[in-house]
Amino acid sequence: MPKKNINIAIDGPAGAGKSTIAKAAAKAFGYIYVDTGALYRAVAYYVLSQGKDVKNAEAVEKLLQDIVPELKYIGGVQHVFVNDEDVSDKIRTPEVSMGASAVSAIPRVRDFLFNLQQKIAAENNVVMDGRDIGTVVLPNADVKIYLTATAEERARRRHKELAEKGETVSFEEVLADVNKRDYNDMHRDIAPLKQAEDAVLCDTTNVDLQGAIDMLINIINEKLGNQSH
Ligand code: DC
Protein backbone atom coordinates (compact mmCIF):
# COMPACT_ATOMS: atom_id res chain seq x y z
CA MET A 1 0.00 0.00 0.00
CA PRO A 2 1.32 3.50 -0.77
CA LYS A 3 2.35 5.49 2.26
CA LYS A 4 -0.45 7.71 3.50
CA ASN A 5 0.28 11.42 3.51
CA ILE A 6 0.60 13.23 6.83
CA ASN A 7 -2.35 15.49 7.61
CA ILE A 8 -2.17 18.11 10.33
CA ALA A 9 -5.40 19.93 11.17
CA ILE A 10 -5.37 23.33 12.81
CA ASP A 11 -8.62 24.98 13.82
CA GLY A 12 -9.47 28.02 15.87
CA PRO A 13 -11.20 31.39 15.86
CA ALA A 14 -10.39 34.39 13.66
CA GLY A 15 -7.20 36.21 14.58
CA ALA A 16 -5.60 33.47 16.69
CA GLY A 17 -2.56 33.65 14.42
CA LYS A 18 -3.44 30.34 12.78
CA SER A 19 -2.20 31.22 9.32
CA THR A 20 1.16 32.67 10.38
CA ILE A 21 1.84 29.89 12.86
CA ALA A 22 0.57 27.07 10.62
CA LYS A 23 2.58 28.42 7.69
CA ALA A 24 5.78 28.43 9.76
CA ALA A 25 5.09 24.90 11.01
CA ALA A 26 4.43 23.68 7.45
CA LYS A 27 7.75 25.16 6.36
CA ALA A 28 9.60 23.47 9.22
CA PHE A 29 8.27 20.07 8.17
CA GLY A 30 8.38 20.66 4.41
CA TYR A 31 4.60 20.22 4.13
CA ILE A 32 2.13 22.25 2.09
CA TYR A 33 0.23 24.92 4.02
CA VAL A 34 -3.46 25.01 3.11
CA ASP A 35 -5.50 28.02 4.19
CA THR A 36 -9.10 26.81 3.78
CA GLY A 37 -10.55 30.17 4.86
CA ALA A 38 -9.26 31.47 1.52
CA LEU A 39 -11.74 29.19 -0.28
CA TYR A 40 -14.72 30.60 1.65
CA ARG A 41 -13.34 34.06 1.00
CA ALA A 42 -13.08 33.26 -2.72
CA VAL A 43 -16.76 32.29 -2.82
CA ALA A 44 -17.72 35.46 -0.93
CA TYR A 45 -15.59 37.57 -3.26
CA TYR A 46 -17.31 36.13 -6.31
CA VAL A 47 -20.80 36.63 -4.83
CA LEU A 48 -19.99 40.24 -3.95
CA SER A 49 -18.47 40.85 -7.40
CA GLN A 50 -21.80 39.79 -8.92
CA GLY A 51 -23.62 42.33 -6.74
CA LYS A 52 -25.45 39.61 -4.80
CA ASP A 53 -26.21 39.34 -1.08
CA VAL A 54 -23.87 36.94 0.76
CA LYS A 55 -26.65 36.18 3.22
CA ASN A 56 -29.12 35.14 0.55
CA ALA A 57 -28.60 31.36 0.46
CA GLU A 58 -30.65 30.87 -2.68
CA ALA A 59 -28.74 33.52 -4.63
CA VAL A 60 -25.38 32.20 -3.39
CA GLU A 61 -26.28 28.58 -4.22
CA LYS A 62 -27.25 29.61 -7.75
CA LEU A 63 -23.85 31.21 -8.29
CA LEU A 64 -21.88 28.13 -7.18
CA GLN A 65 -22.19 26.56 -10.62
CA ASP A 66 -20.27 29.52 -12.05
CA ILE A 67 -17.36 29.29 -9.60
CA VAL A 68 -14.24 27.21 -10.13
CA PRO A 69 -12.08 27.76 -7.05
CA GLU A 70 -8.48 26.54 -7.10
CA LEU A 71 -5.48 26.65 -4.81
CA LYS A 72 -2.15 26.85 -6.60
CA TYR A 73 1.31 26.95 -5.09
CA ILE A 74 3.59 29.50 -6.70
CA GLY A 75 7.11 29.51 -5.26
CA GLY A 76 5.72 27.57 -2.30
CA VAL A 77 3.12 30.25 -1.57
CA GLN A 78 -0.60 29.53 -1.74
CA HIS A 79 -2.54 31.53 -4.32
CA VAL A 80 -6.31 31.42 -4.61
CA PHE A 81 -7.93 31.48 -8.02
CA VAL A 82 -11.54 31.94 -9.00
CA ASN A 83 -12.20 31.06 -12.63
CA ASP A 84 -8.49 31.52 -13.43
CA GLU A 85 -8.31 34.96 -11.80
CA ASP A 86 -5.77 35.24 -8.97
CA VAL A 87 -7.84 36.79 -6.15
CA SER A 88 -5.30 36.20 -3.36
CA ASP A 89 -5.04 39.87 -2.42
CA LYS A 90 -8.63 40.88 -3.18
CA ILE A 91 -10.06 38.43 -0.63
CA ARG A 92 -8.36 40.12 2.33
CA THR A 93 -10.74 43.05 2.81
CA PRO A 94 -13.04 43.40 5.88
CA GLU A 95 -16.06 43.13 3.55
CA VAL A 96 -14.89 39.79 2.17
CA SER A 97 -14.02 38.59 5.73
CA MET A 98 -17.56 39.16 6.89
CA GLY A 99 -18.92 37.79 3.61
CA ALA A 100 -16.88 34.60 4.02
CA SER A 101 -18.32 34.10 7.47
CA ALA A 102 -21.83 34.52 6.00
CA VAL A 103 -21.44 32.17 3.02
CA SER A 104 -19.70 29.57 5.19
CA ALA A 105 -22.97 29.08 7.09
CA ILE A 106 -24.70 27.87 3.91
CA PRO A 107 -24.60 24.03 3.79
CA ARG A 108 -24.25 23.80 0.01
CA VAL A 109 -21.25 26.12 0.10
CA ARG A 110 -19.58 23.82 2.63
CA ASP A 111 -20.39 20.75 0.50
CA PHE A 112 -19.06 22.53 -2.56
CA LEU A 113 -15.64 23.12 -0.94
CA PHE A 114 -15.43 19.84 0.99
CA ASN A 115 -14.11 17.55 -1.78
CA LEU A 116 -11.48 20.03 -2.88
CA GLN A 117 -10.07 20.22 0.66
CA GLN A 118 -10.09 16.43 1.10
CA LYS A 119 -8.42 15.91 -2.26
CA ILE A 120 -5.55 18.28 -1.44
CA ALA A 121 -5.02 16.50 1.90
CA ALA A 122 -5.13 13.05 0.29
CA GLU A 123 -2.51 14.01 -2.29
CA ASN A 124 -0.05 15.94 -0.11
CA ASN A 125 1.51 16.17 3.32
CA VAL A 126 -0.41 19.17 4.64
CA VAL A 127 -0.84 21.56 7.49
CA MET A 128 -4.44 22.63 6.87
CA ASP A 129 -6.06 25.45 8.81
CA GLY A 130 -9.70 26.40 9.16
CA ARG A 131 -12.69 26.01 11.47
CA ASP A 132 -13.85 22.42 10.90
CA ILE A 133 -10.73 20.65 9.67
CA GLY A 134 -10.25 18.37 12.69
CA THR A 135 -13.99 17.86 13.20
CA VAL A 136 -15.36 17.44 9.65
CA VAL A 137 -12.90 17.70 6.76
CA LEU A 138 -10.07 15.53 8.14
CA PRO A 139 -11.53 13.59 11.08
CA ASN A 140 -8.64 11.10 10.79
CA ALA A 141 -5.87 13.71 10.74
CA ASP A 142 -2.58 12.56 12.27
CA VAL A 143 -2.41 15.65 14.48
CA LYS A 144 -5.20 18.03 15.50
CA ILE A 145 -4.55 21.35 17.16
CA TYR A 146 -7.05 23.93 18.39
CA LEU A 147 -5.28 27.27 18.39
CA THR A 148 -6.86 30.10 20.31
CA ALA A 149 -6.33 33.28 22.35
CA THR A 150 -8.77 35.56 24.17
CA ALA A 151 -10.96 37.79 21.97
CA GLU A 152 -9.28 40.90 23.46
CA GLU A 153 -5.81 39.64 22.63
CA ARG A 154 -6.83 38.64 19.09
CA ALA A 155 -8.43 42.07 18.58
CA ARG A 156 -5.31 43.78 19.97
CA ARG A 157 -3.10 41.94 17.45
CA ARG A 158 -5.45 42.67 14.56
CA HIS A 159 -5.73 46.34 15.54
CA LYS A 160 -1.94 46.64 15.58
CA GLU A 161 -1.70 45.00 12.16
CA LEU A 162 -4.29 47.41 10.71
CA ALA A 163 -2.59 50.43 12.31
CA GLU A 164 0.70 49.34 10.72
CA LYS A 165 -1.05 49.30 7.35
CA GLY A 166 -2.21 52.87 8.03
CA GLU A 167 -5.87 51.96 8.57
CA THR A 168 -7.60 54.08 11.20
CA VAL A 169 -10.10 51.86 12.91
CA SER A 170 -10.75 51.87 16.66
CA PHE A 171 -9.87 48.97 18.94
CA GLU A 172 -13.55 48.73 19.94
CA GLU A 173 -14.58 48.28 16.31
CA VAL A 174 -12.00 45.55 15.77
CA LEU A 175 -13.08 43.78 18.97
CA ALA A 176 -16.74 43.97 17.91
CA ASP A 177 -15.77 42.44 14.55
CA VAL A 178 -13.83 39.62 16.20
CA ASN A 179 -16.73 38.87 18.56
CA LYS A 180 -19.27 38.92 15.74
CA ARG A 181 -17.25 36.53 13.58
CA ASP A 182 -16.64 34.21 16.57
CA TYR A 183 -20.34 34.17 17.26
CA ASN A 184 -21.25 33.45 13.60
CA ASP A 185 -18.62 30.72 13.25
CA MET A 186 -19.47 28.99 16.55
CA HIS A 187 -23.24 29.14 16.27
CA ARG A 188 -23.99 28.13 12.71
CA ASP A 189 -25.98 24.91 12.38
CA ILE A 190 -23.51 23.11 10.18
CA ALA A 191 -19.85 22.38 11.03
CA PRO A 192 -19.61 25.07 13.72
CA LEU A 193 -16.21 26.03 15.05
CA LYS A 194 -15.37 23.86 18.04
CA GLN A 195 -12.44 21.96 19.43
CA ALA A 196 -12.33 18.35 18.22
CA GLU A 197 -12.34 15.89 21.13
CA ASP A 198 -8.90 14.62 20.19
CA ALA A 199 -7.38 18.04 19.44
CA VAL A 200 -4.58 19.52 21.53
CA LEU A 201 -5.55 22.94 22.90
CA CYS A 202 -2.93 25.61 22.26
CA ASP A 203 -3.65 28.99 23.90
CA THR A 204 -1.35 31.75 22.62
CA THR A 205 -2.76 34.65 24.68
CA ASN A 206 0.45 35.11 26.65
CA VAL A 207 2.86 33.64 24.10
CA ASP A 208 4.75 35.56 21.43
CA LEU A 209 4.80 34.46 17.80
CA GLN A 210 8.04 32.45 17.95
CA GLY A 211 6.86 30.84 21.18
CA ALA A 212 3.61 29.81 19.53
CA ILE A 213 5.43 28.39 16.48
CA ASP A 214 7.71 26.39 18.79
CA MET A 215 4.70 25.14 20.75
CA LEU A 216 3.07 23.90 17.58
CA ILE A 217 6.21 22.23 16.22
CA ASN A 218 6.71 20.46 19.55
CA ILE A 219 3.14 19.17 19.59
CA ILE A 220 3.44 17.92 16.01
CA ASN A 221 6.78 16.21 16.69
CA GLU A 222 5.41 14.58 19.80
CA LYS A 223 2.25 13.34 18.06
CA LEU A 224 4.16 12.05 15.04
CA GLY A 225 6.72 10.43 17.30
CA ASN A 226 9.55 12.37 15.61
CA GLN A 227 13.01 12.80 17.05
CA SER A 228 14.14 15.49 14.61
CA HIS A 229 12.98 19.11 13.80
O1 DC B 1 -9.71 31.83 8.36
P1 DC B 1 -10.44 33.00 7.66
O2 DC B 1 -10.62 34.19 8.55
O3 DC B 1 -9.79 33.35 6.37
O4 DC B 1 -11.89 32.42 7.32
C1 DC B 1 -12.89 33.21 6.74
C2 DC B 1 -14.26 32.65 7.10
O5 DC B 1 -14.45 31.39 6.47
C3 DC B 1 -14.48 32.39 8.59
O6 DC B 1 -15.14 33.46 9.21
C4 DC B 1 -15.31 31.14 8.64
C5 DC B 1 -15.12 30.48 7.31
N1 DC B 1 -14.38 29.23 7.38
C6 DC B 1 -15.10 28.08 7.65
O7 DC B 1 -16.29 28.15 7.90
N2 DC B 1 -14.47 26.87 7.63
C7 DC B 1 -13.17 26.78 7.37
N3 DC B 1 -12.59 25.58 7.35
C8 DC B 1 -12.41 27.95 7.13
C9 DC B 1 -13.05 29.17 7.15
The helix content, as a percent range, equals 40-55%
Order of helices and strands: EHEHHEEEHHEHEHHEH
Strand content: 15-25%
Overall outline:
globular
The rounded distance between the terminal residues' Cα atoms is 27 Å
Gyration radius, in Å: 17 Å
pLDDT < 50 runs, ≥5 residues:
none
Task: Give the strand order, joined by hyphens, for the main sheet.
Answer: 2-6-1-7-8
Ions and ligands: 2'-deoxycytidine-5'-monophosphate
On the 0-100 scale, what is the average pLDDT? 93
Count of runs of 4 or more consecutive helical residues: 9
Secondary structure elements and their pairing?
Elements: E1 7-11, H1 18-29, E2 32-35, H2 37-49, H3 57-64, E3 69-74, E4 77-82, E5 85-86, H4 94-103, H5 107-123, E6 126-130, H6 133-137, E7 143-148, H7 151-164, H8 171-187, E8 200-203, H9 209-224
Parallel strand pairs: 1-6, 1-7, 2-6, 7-8
Antiparallel strand pairs: 3-4, 4-5
2'-deoxycytidine-5'-monophosphate (DC) is lined by residues 14, 36-37, 40-41, 100-101, 104, 130-133, 181, 185.
Describe this structure in words.
This protein is of the alpha/beta class and 229 residues long. The protein has nine helices and eight strands. It has a five-stranded parallel beta sheet with strand order 2-6-1-7-8, sandwiched between helices. Strands 3-4-5 form a three-stranded antiparallel beta sheet. The two termini are 27 Å apart. The mean pLDDT is 93. 2'-deoxycytidine-5'-monophosphate binds at residues 14, 36-37, 40-41, 100-101, 104, 130-133, 181, 185.
